[in-house]
Q: What sequence folds into this?
């Protein structure tokens, strides 16, 4: 729904975050107003909240038809990134301290009038500062609780972290956030994403992370009950249970007015207003649509690697072709800060933007594994299928590492769009990809049709129109 920039205020060199409204795909005329309304709703929600564990907002404004939101720039990393780089579960005491802070945010949100239900807690949506403070940064899915309503207007959230009622089976309430809190604690303690609509069994977490206390495991199990009546009745109750598992109590944080970071290299001082002047905002860079799931664009890792959109292999930044499959590589667009104009001879001629591809109806996979079944919507294309490999910074959109007994390759297959159809390509997997009972030849795209069945080791994917 938007992209976030790190910006510097010219007046004093202070660093802020600037969120720009940018839909993931071109919108119809009637959808533009709704997109603006949702963006503004998120910004106003943040502006209305004052809590030490919630990012602070400064101002919402519109420029050239797009909305922008200025907010506190938070130094740190998401818990998702921390887990990925550690490639191991978090220490139990750390996980409890972080989750207790999240519970305190929920106590604050649920105490608003009307209560605010966050609905999308997961490691990717919270930042951990170097001091160990948790910050909620994304309120795009949050909503107010409406008393007496049968169910939410829109079923939305993240697979695995969302409770049953969030799949359109009822209205979410404070206990829905309790489920997401338990699912997040499960992820922190195991370094495994929670299975959709599944309550962990006693001993399951300890089998993965033996030092975890039995009572900590019981907290996760109770929070992730499918029947909301069996969960903790409030975030206060869950926090109390987690505090009992800590070696020493976690003190409350005080709400303070955030002091923006200062760019030490900034030497210019002007009389610019507090908010970056509207005339200074640069037009949106001509980059592809931003999506929330995966990373379909060829991308760089701090300038060191380019990732192939066909097989996901990381290549040197100077490479022109993928070392694994030979696909031509193109560096991802880079958003640069305004600079002094370079000499004319150094200006590069940009290629015209490609014509938009034909519209494809949304599709999904019905995934069946030995550990359970769920729906996986195809939100990102290309959609890589395989096993994550942190050593190569490889994280496929459909990661089978936790659901397959080693049959799937790290780079196994990929789903792409070719014209007006979806196609499946085996990218040279070791054990092969089976489509409707037939093993596919490597590197030969096969069109997908309704009810096609893909078999990769122990996992079956049934292709359907959403």
A:
């Amino acid at each position: 729904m938007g992209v976030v920039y790190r910006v510097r205020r010219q007046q004093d060199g202070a660093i802020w975050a600037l969120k720009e409204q940018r839909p993931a795909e071109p919108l119809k005329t009637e959808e533009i107003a709704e997109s603006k309304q949702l963006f503004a709703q998120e910004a106003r929600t943040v502006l209305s909240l004052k809590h030490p564990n919630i990012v602070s907002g400064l101002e919402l404004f519109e420029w050239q038809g797009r909305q922008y939101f200025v907010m506190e720039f938070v130094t740190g990393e998401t818990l998702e990134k921390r887990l990925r780089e550690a490639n191991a579960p978090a220490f139990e005491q750390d996980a409890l301290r972080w989750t207790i802070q999240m519970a305190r945010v929920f106590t604050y949100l649920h105490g608003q009038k009307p209560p605010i239900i966050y609905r999308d807690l997961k490691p990717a949506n919270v930042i951990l500062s170097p001091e160990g403070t948790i910050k909620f940064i994304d309120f795009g899915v949050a909503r107010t609780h409406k008393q007496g309503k049968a169910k939410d207007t829109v079923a939305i959230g993240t697979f695995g972290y969302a409770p049953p009622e969030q799949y359109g089976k009822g209205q979410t309430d404070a206990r829905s956030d309790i489920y997401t809190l338990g699912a997040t604690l499960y992820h922190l303690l195991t370094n495994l994403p929670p299975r959709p609509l599944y309550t962990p069994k006693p001993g399951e977490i300890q089998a993965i992370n033996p030092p975890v206390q039995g009572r900590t495991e019981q907290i996760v199990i109770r929070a992730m009950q499918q029947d909301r009546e069996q969960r903790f009745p409030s975030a206060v109750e869950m926090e109390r249970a987690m505090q009992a598992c800590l070696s020493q109590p976690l003190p409350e944080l005080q709400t303070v007015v955030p002091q923006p970071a200062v760019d030490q290299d900034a030497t210019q001082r002007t009389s610019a207003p507090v908010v970056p002047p509207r005339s200074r905002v640069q037009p949106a860079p001509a980059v592809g649509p931003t999506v929330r799931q995966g990373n379909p664009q060829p991308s760089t890792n701090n300038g060191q690697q380019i990732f192939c959109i066909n097989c996901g292999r990381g290549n040197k930044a100077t490479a022109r072709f993928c070392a694994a499959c030979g696909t031509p590589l193109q560096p991802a667009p880079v958003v640069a800060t305004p600079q002094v104009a370079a000499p004319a001879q150094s200006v590069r001629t940009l290629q015209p933007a490609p014509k938009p591809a034909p519209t494809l109806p949304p599709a999904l996979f019905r995934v069946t594994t030995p550990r359970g079944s769920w729906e996986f919507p195809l939100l990102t294309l290309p959609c890589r299928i395989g096993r994550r490999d942190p050593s190569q910074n490889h994280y496929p959109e459909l990661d089978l590492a936790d659901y397959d007994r080693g049959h799937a390759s790290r780079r196994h297959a990929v789903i792409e769009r070719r014209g007006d159809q979806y196609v499946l390509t085996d990218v040279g997997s070791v054990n092969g990809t089976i489509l409707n009972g037939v093993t596919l030849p490597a590197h030969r795209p096969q069109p997908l049709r309704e009810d096609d069945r893909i078999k990769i080791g122990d996992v079956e994917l049934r292709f359907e129109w959403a």
